[in-house]
Amino acid sequence: MAAQFVRYTPDVEAEDPDFDQHVRTVIEKTERYITESVQAGGTGQALRDAHAKGYGLIRGQVEILGGLPAEYAQGIYAAPGTHDALIRFSNGSPHAGADARLGAATGLALKMFGIPGPTLLEDEPDTGTFDYANINGPVFFCNTVEHYLFIQELFLNAPAYFSQGRRGAHRFFTEFVTGKGTLDREDWAWDEFLAFVRLAKTPPANLLLSSYWTMGAVRHGDCIAKVRITPDPSCAAAVVRRTIDPASAQEVFRPALQAELRERPYAFDIQVQLCTDLERMPVEDLTVEWPERLSPYVTVAKLRLPQQDISGPRNLAAMDSLSFTPWRVTAEHAPLGNIMRARKEVYRHSSIQRHKLNQQPRTEPRSADEALAPSHHHA
User: Fold this and answer.
1) pLDDT digit string, tens, across residues 252-272
2) Does residue 378 register a pLDDT over 60?
3) How far apart are the first and last CA of the chain?
4) Distance from the CA of 66 to the CA of which of 197, 300, 370, 378 falls in 20 to 30 A?
5) What is the mean pLDDT of residues 18-36?
6) Which residues are CB-contacts of 137 (< 8 A; sequence separation ≥ 6)?
7) pLDDT tens, 338-377?
8) What is the 3-state secondary structure (H, E, C) of the chain?
9) CA 324 to chain centre
């Protein structure tokens, strides 16, 4: 049985000699964007450079299941048990404002509490927290930090392009594929562009009805995995506000989420898909969806959301003072691949900069209660 799963070894990741230099450039652009967002973003606060608009902070509980097959019962999933958790739902865009203007990419960031062992963040190893920062698509539109340099720039300036109608859109797409004229024709970013188009065409859905993936691959103890957080089918069937029309109002996602959680509890399944074939389930190519026929998703934990009231500005303030990063994990769950590696320092610098500008203390809460307590916010 175990032979079919690819074993994790450090050489599943590709070396990139220019990696550190590219990451530094991305960090500089990101910090500049966040600084300018205080004035430009329209909220008077520094915004995140992605997932800027949050839809609510939700209290939850993760129950790690017992009796899992050995390959799945690894790392934090090795021992059954229950952990308090918080969830931040968000839009993927670097901009805030009306939902209709922000596009279809949404995120589910999960923070679990009481997870022992040091995390991979050297400046805060012993927080006892463990994060996922997932998006509502099984692929991502960028494979390398080198490409992220031009893709990030296009996204941060997207409103300027698209405000010019078809001509602007055409320019945006051309500059994406050609890397703003820097790529040789045989290296044009077609795979990444098609992944972007695929994500952009995701129909808007109630946040509770989407599935959310880890974007890239992660270690799963001795194996390599992608992790998906997907609606529990019976809970999904009970959702009343199923269709979301962003054109119908300024705010559509948060009110629907708020109303559902006020009426009933909800649950997601946390699932792991193990890699069985590095050719067809690559670590370094995020535009490739790993086929489920090669390796199905297996549920390793339940994420339960009790009935709750997330309305009010305090919920949004608590949500804004938190930081989520795919690197706040133990070594057995390390993110893998060029883009996932880049997220480590980019997220850290982005979070530090945002908290500084918003005069918020940047400390990990020790519990969901502490994060949601009014005294936690000095912003």
Assistant:
1) 999 999 999 999 999 999 999
2) no
3) 53
4) 370
5) 86
6) 105, 198, 199, 202, 213
7) 999 988 888 888 888 888 888 888 889 999 999 998 754 4
8) CHHHCCECCHHHCCCCCCHHHHHHHHHHHHHHHHHHHHHHCCCCCCCCCCCCCEEEEEEEEEEECCCCCCCCCCHHHCCCEEEEEEEEEEECCCCCCCHHHCCCCEEEEEEECCCCCCCCCCCCCCCCCEEEEEECCCCCCCCCHHHHHHHHHHHHCHHHHHCCHHHHHHHHHHHHHHCCCCCCHHHCCHHHHHHHHHHHCCCCECHHHCCEECCCCEEECCEEEEEEEEECHHHHHHCCCCECCHHHCCCCHHHHHHHHHHHCCEEEEEEEEECCCCCCCCCCCCCCCCCCCCCCCEEEEEEEECCCCCCCHHHHHHHHCCCCCCCCCCHHHCECCHHHHHHHHHHHHHHHHHHHHCCCCCCCCCCHHHHHCHHHCCC
9) 8
How far from chain centre, in Å, is Cα 328?
A: 13
Mean pLDDT of the chain: 91
Per the DSSP assignment, residues forming a β-bridge with 59 are 86
User: Residue 260 corresponds to which tokens in the numbers above?
Assistant: 């559902």
Return left, alpha or beta for 360; rule: phi > 0 is left, psi -120 to 50 is alpha, else beta: beta
Task: Mention every residue, 6+ apart, whose C-beta is less than 8 A from residue 50.
Answer: 92, 93, 94, 155
User: In terms of Cα–Cα distance, which of 53, 50, 26 is closest to 42?
Assistant: 53
pLDDT in tens, 68-119: 999 999 999 999 999 999 999 999 877 788 888 888 899 999 999 999 989 9
Is the model more confident about 199 or about 241? Answer: 241
Report how far apart, in Å, the C-alpha atoms of 98 and of each of 104, 252, 311, 351 are.
12, 9, 18, 24
**N residues, the chain:** 379
Instruction: Provide the pLDDT for residue 270.
Output: 98
Distance, in Å, from the CA atom of 344 to the CA atom of 68, rounded to the nearest integer, reads 30
Q: Do residues 240 and 279 touch, judged by C-beta distance below 8 A?
A: no
Q: Given a cut of 90, is residue 179 above it in pLDDT?
A: yes
Quick one: 28 exposed, middle or buried, by C-beta within 10 A (0-12, 13-18, 19+)? exposed
Token pair in block for residue 171: 């320019």
More confident residue, 272 or 1: 272
